[in-house]
């Protein structure tokens, strides 16, 4: 906020409210405070930006994980009965972790 105010000549409001992802970005409060832009640092938008009460800039985040550990854990868990080589496994993740899923899938196939 200090950098924006000092070098861009704009005023800033830091909203520290709890959000549970991009589905509950508090654009209503931002608009009520007179904000012209809301910057959301987190995962991707679930609400179409044209339906927001103020303009929103999403700064996407991807979290790196130890995929080797995940693969080893899955192999260990699914190598025992009643699972076998034909077991179909659904790999699901929140958007921050979705980037690793293709590599995990390829390693398990």
Automatic annotation (TrEMBL):
<dbReference type="GO" id="GO:0090560">
    <property type="term" value="F:2-(3-amino-3-carboxypropyl)histidine synthase activity"/>
</dbReference>
<dbReference type="GO" id="GO:0017183">
    <property type="term" value="P:protein histidyl modification to diphthamide"/>
</dbReference>
<dbReference type="InterPro" id="IPR042263">
    <property type="entry name" value="DPH1/DPH2_1"/>
</dbReference>
<dbReference type="InterPro" id="IPR016435">
    <property type="entry name" value="DPH1/DPH2"/>
</dbReference>
<dbReference type="Pfam" id="PF01866">
    <property type="entry name" value="Diphthamide_syn"/>
</dbReference>
<protein>
    <recommendedName>
        <fullName>2-(3-amino-3-carboxypropyl)histidine synthase</fullName>
    </recommendedName>
</protein>
